[in-house]
Amino acid sequence: MFDLTGRRALITGGSRGIGAACVTVFSDAGADVAFSFRERSDRADELVAELEEAGKSAHAIQADLGSRKGCEHLVSEAASQLGGLDILVHNAGIWTGGSIEAMPDEIWRETMQVNLDSAFYLTRAAVGHLRERSHGRIIYITSTAAQRGEAEHSHYAASKGALQSLTKSLAVELAPDRITVNALAPGWVLTDMVSDALSDEEIAEVEKIIPRGSMAHPEDIARPVAFLASDGAVHITGEILNVNGGAVLCG
Question: What pLDDT, in 10s, does the model give residues 78-101?
């Protein structure tokens, strides 16, 4: 396990799926964690209770990442509760379907707001806190869709592709401040979002095309995220770490 003792981390979309796994893994590694949720306060409360029962703690903060004010409030509140920030993990995002001809303007704009604009607003608000430390970390969760595209999900793929370009740009810009900026691009992950969208039969068909033979579990993504946040990744910046079981060989 990577040692994150004394590090203060903000993880967005932390009440379920990959985000919740990151909260648990980071907490197990010794980090002080705050995480955001949008609506499911019950899931957020359950996670906090589970960690407290294990002798750890986390701070759940309700936030609307579809707005600049919501992002700025989240960073301010997290920094206040944690006493500063060392790590930003931006995991929150939405995945909806639609052909280019049938996609309403509102769906396009919402996807860009939640998946891309929020990264800009969160990062802008967090950089001042991260600069105070000599080991600031920014990690964006993107997707294999950013590299290979995804029919009927062009808006999602475009938002994640832009996030990877942001990663590379900020890696150079923030390097003098000793802040690393990386992205992790998962393939298929067995989360609630996938289970809700696909039947068991469809999941089985997807797993047939993954060389390792199965979808990842959220913990399979959270552990590499923790690596990127650790001292083991001190000289890694501007990278896209692909974690997809060999399904998309683009590294």
Answer: 999 999 999 999 998 887 777 888
